[in-house]
Sequence to fold (90 residues):
Amino acid sequence: MSHVKAGGTSKNVKDSPGQRLGVKLFGGQKVRTGQIIVRQTGMTKRPGKGTFIGRDFTIHAEKDGIVRFNTRRFRLFSGKTTGRTEVTVE
Fold:
């Protein structure tokens, strides 16, 4: 017979590194074409004039300029309207 109590298996030991999401360039900062402005999951912030959104919802600058953030009303799929932050480059 064993003299050591059996060690159970643990299921919650895996861990993944952080995705480094968030706003990379803030309002009033200069931006160049193709630079990342916001990294996000889902469309929490919407692209406006001078920006485009990538496949992973990353907002990039379409042209050189200055980053601006403003709040606009957007209609959801259900018909409800809510305020969302819109990212533009002027």
User: Anything to note?
Assistant: The chain has a mean pLDDT of 92. The two ends are 76 Å apart (CA to CA). Residues 22-89 form a domain with the OB fold (Dihydrolipoamide Acetyltransferase, E2P) fold (CATH 2.40.50.100).
